Amino acid sequence: MTSTARASCTSVPNQKHRGSNHHCRQSCSAVDTDSQSLSTLGYFKTLPLEIFQMLLSYLSVKDISVLSMVSKAISNRLVNYISTPSGNRRLLLQDFHNIKLPGKREGSCIIEHYKSLGLLLKRCTLLLPTKDRLRYIHKVLSEVSCFKLSGCPSPLHCVGLQCYGLFLQILIAGWDELECHRVFNFLCELSNLPRKVQAVVSSKPGSARKLELRIRLFCRSVLLNHWVHRSDSAFWLTRILKPWPMVNQARLLYIIFGPVSSLDGHVVWQKMIEGPTDETSLKGLADAIKLLYDTEAREWTADDVISLVDELSVVPREWLLENNARLLILSGNNICFTFMASKAVNGRAVELARLVVFLALVCEKDLYCMDWAVKMMQKVCKVFSTPGERNIFLQSVENAFAHMVMDMLQAVLAGNRDQEDISFLNLFHLVNAQANFHKEILYLTMRSGSNPI
């Protein structure tokens, strides 16, 4: 049928009718394209659009995503369906404060729904350039208020940002690094994230508590939490931190991974200053530091990470040295040694000696093997360039132990009844730490000095 039409169009020999001949060819080409488009719809071409969309209501979102791969014509119909009011109601569920879907079996939830929706939009927009894909997806999701950084009135009781993060993770899985840069820039533009980060890092810690909380939730739930590979997590954390000076990077790292209140979820800025803290409060920071130190984070040198740790230890003011030591232990051997070696190289032996004492104290309190602290000190001793420097450092360690014991003993004698118990417990841990530390040194000395018979 198509070939007959073409023959009739091209059979006119008269040259003065060439314009009409060209018009006829265009018409035939359009008819041909429409015919091909209809043929790729298969049996669906006989259905009115309304009936086709009605059939979609009987398919799961995952099944619709499979259907989108049948042909370009089907995919275009699905793109149009997603933009219709009925498609919006079906696909853009917004009950983020009640994660069980109505009428579904136990365990089916809105989070799984948005993972499937991410797959559907990934497949429907497969042939579009990255910018056009992002614009279309923004157009689809723009009315979902809980996907916005400041959109939900109750962010701690909402899974909207989590759904958005999983949706994006499925959508951009397999995209190259340049495309992911575009995604981050697009998200920053939509959420106005840089301006909001600037507001919190340049103001007094805790003065914008609600904004700090929203930045924390957005960065974690949308950008960081859902990646399987550490290299992906390192990439997105780097995008968040790298635009800022080191001092602001440390502030932002604390906002995203630092300890929060169990009552209202706000960042607790005084936690590292007022008293010893537990591992739970430091684990997020330690994991982030390890992530940046790993080889996957190509944009960070060892010096960068150590400088960041140093800067972090004075956010918002200088931490208790015990908390600093606990963070180093949780960050792993390589980071701990590099941090201590940096102090040794820069002539900060007295400061390093106090740190060794607190590493021993944390090992005693948290039940780590004390020989780890001794071996770490032994390794650091090799960094000193002369025996004299090494001897000064070792003498400083012993002096630090003595001064700390005396300070804690004075606190016990001067304290009231409530403080006395705490001060005595601290003294007890320190004396035990000193004894076990020196015991491990004696063991090490005897083993290295013994000769086989």
TrEMBL record:
Domain of life: Eukaryota
InterPro entries: ARM_FBXO47, F-box-like_dom_sf, F-box_dom, FBXO47
UniProt domain F-box: residue ranges: 41-91
PROSITE patterns with a match to the protein in the record: FBOX
Region (Disordered): 1-24
Biased composition (Basic residues): 15-24
Biased composition annotated in UniProt, kind: Polar residues: 1-14
A Pfam match: F-box
Name of this protein: F-box protein 47
Species, as recorded: Pavo cristatus (Indian peafowl)
